[in-house]
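for the recovery benchmark. tokens below, seq after
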């Protein structure tokens, strides 16, 4: 039997509310249900925020969605759209990969800002219902949401400015270095009477008039990294793109992959009735090796914490994990598939069999492009070394162009050295990171293979998980209360419910 060597925090089950709860202690006229109730305090708090039943408004017209992190808000809204605008907290958590607390806060804020309302089922489940135009309503209220696209563009432009400055400086450095070398060599051959003015006025005025380093930035492309991710690996780059790719690489290939990981895990659990074995989630988690997983299932703890899972023991003594919040849904789109006489690869359907990280690439440049960039970088480094030797033995006029080059020469040295130092450091970093990624990918793939052809004990464990699974779709016919109705209607329905509860109590 599997064991866990880490302490698991068990959330106490809510106490059933008494049938005799009176409306006098419930000023919001929210009925109290005799069956299992999911955190009725959430209903009361959200009703107040939405102004349910009593027409309560938020002081100062605060936009609650502005308090949410932008990524959490976007993921929650995508999940709401995917479910058709009628969701439970578990729906959003599983589809968006958010933890339950994030999903709950996001739904409350979005509903408060977009005239959404709550529904309560016969079992006490809370559903959030949004109008079709809730996005446009939110955009009309929130200045922050309106400004986000412009802020993102500005941020991308600033980040690109920093990167492109390093690349365009290569051309500027080569021009400055070799122009100065030519000036110094030419001036050294002039008459001895003019040695105090090495380089001559013609080098100062001519260079200033004809050459402006700012002209090198006419080809800036603030969407370079975004565009590079959209291109194929064999797409040809221009010269300046090759410089960027050689020095800084082509961005993180696993950007946003953690969000995708939690989406996969949430969808997997929800699609299988909210009860799974630890071995089923191993292909999606970070594990070093599949060895010892049967004896130590602590690797599943992050999932339990994120989706409020609880361990349960079946009749055979196997430890399974139940996620009650993901067992109840307002969407009819997801249907649980049974693991009966099927291979695991067929059973998981459209969900990926295991989570795979992408390896980092040093650069997407071709060998010829890389050779050209390396050659120009080497040419610049060689020029800086020669120029440093010449400047040591030269007397320079205070107002000359060469004096300016002398002042910025330490920067030229730093740039020439870092042009190769940065890629060298990146190469070691990428080599080490790819080794770790390959190790994790291989371990997850091995765990997936174990599920593809499970042995007798694992197969029995999976059968037990499917038997314990529950999936409840909450339809409109199961709704007994809604904050979308006016005060008189709520009061009438509340009295009817209280009357029914008292009748049930007397019959018991």
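predicted aa per position
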């Amino acid at each position: 039997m599997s064991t866990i060597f880490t302490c698991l925090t068990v959330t106490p089950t809510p106490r059933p509310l008494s049938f005799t709860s009176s409306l006098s202690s419930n000023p919001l006229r929210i009925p109290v249900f005799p069956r299992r109730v999911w955190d009725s305090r959430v209903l009361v708090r959200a009703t107040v925020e939405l102004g349910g039943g009593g027409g309560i408004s938020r002081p100062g017209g605060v936009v609650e969605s502005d308090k949410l992190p932008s990524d959490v808000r976007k993921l929650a809204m995508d999940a709401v759209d995917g479910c058709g605008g009628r969701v439970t907290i578990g729906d959003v958590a599983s589809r968006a990969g958010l933890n339950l607390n994030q999903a709950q806060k996001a739904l409350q804020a979005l509903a408060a800002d977009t005239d959404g309302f709550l529904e309560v089922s016969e079992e006490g489940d809370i559903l959030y219902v949004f109008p079709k135009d809730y996005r446009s309503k939110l955009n009309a209220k929130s200045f922050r949401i309106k400004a986000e696209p412009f802020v993102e563009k500005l941020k991308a432009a600033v980040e690109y400015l920093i990167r492109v400055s390093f690349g365009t400086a290569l051309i500027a450095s080569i021009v400055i270095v070799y122009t100065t070398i030519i000036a110094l060599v030419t001036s050294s051959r002039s008459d001895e009477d003019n040695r105090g003015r090495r380089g001559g006025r013609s080098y100062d005025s001519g260079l200033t008039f004809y050459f402006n380093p700012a002209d090198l930035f006419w080809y800036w492309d603030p969407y370079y990294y975004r565009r590079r991710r959209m291109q194929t690996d064999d797409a040809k780059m221009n010269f300046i793109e090759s410089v960027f790719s050689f020095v800084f690489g082509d961005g993180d290939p696993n950007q946003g992959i953690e969000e995708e990981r939690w989406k996969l895990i949430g969808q997997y659990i929800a699609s299988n009735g909210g009860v799974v074995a630890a071995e089923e989630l191993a292909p999606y988690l970070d594990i070093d090796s599949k060895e010892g997983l049967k004896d130590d299932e602590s690797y599943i703890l992050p999932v339990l914490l994120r989706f409020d899972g609880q361990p349960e023991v079946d009749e055979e003594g196997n430890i399974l994990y139940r996620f009650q919040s993901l067992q109840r849904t307002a969407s009819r789109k997801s249907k649980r598939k049974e693991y009966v006489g099927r291979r695991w690869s067929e059973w998981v359907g459209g969900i990926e069999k295991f989570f795979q990280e992408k390896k980092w690439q040093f650069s997407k440049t071709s060998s010829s492009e890389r050779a050209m960039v390396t050659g120009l970088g080497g040419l610049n480094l060689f020029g800086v070394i020669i120029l440093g030797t010449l400047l040591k033995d030269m007397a320079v006029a205070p107002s000359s162009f060469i004096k300016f080059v002398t002042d910025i020469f330490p920067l030229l040295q730093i740039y020439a050295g870092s042009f190769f130092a940065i890629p060298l450091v990146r190469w070691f970093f990428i080599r080490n990171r790819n080794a770790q990624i390959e190790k994790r990918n291989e371990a997850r793939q091995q765990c997936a293979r174990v599920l593809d052809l499970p042995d007798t004990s694992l197969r029995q464990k999976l059968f037990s998980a499917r038997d314990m699974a529950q999936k409840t779709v909450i339809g409109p016919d199961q709704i007994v209360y809604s904050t979308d109705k006016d005060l008189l209607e709520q009061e009438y329905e509340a009295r009817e419910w209280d009357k029914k509860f008292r009748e049930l109590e007397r019959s018991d």
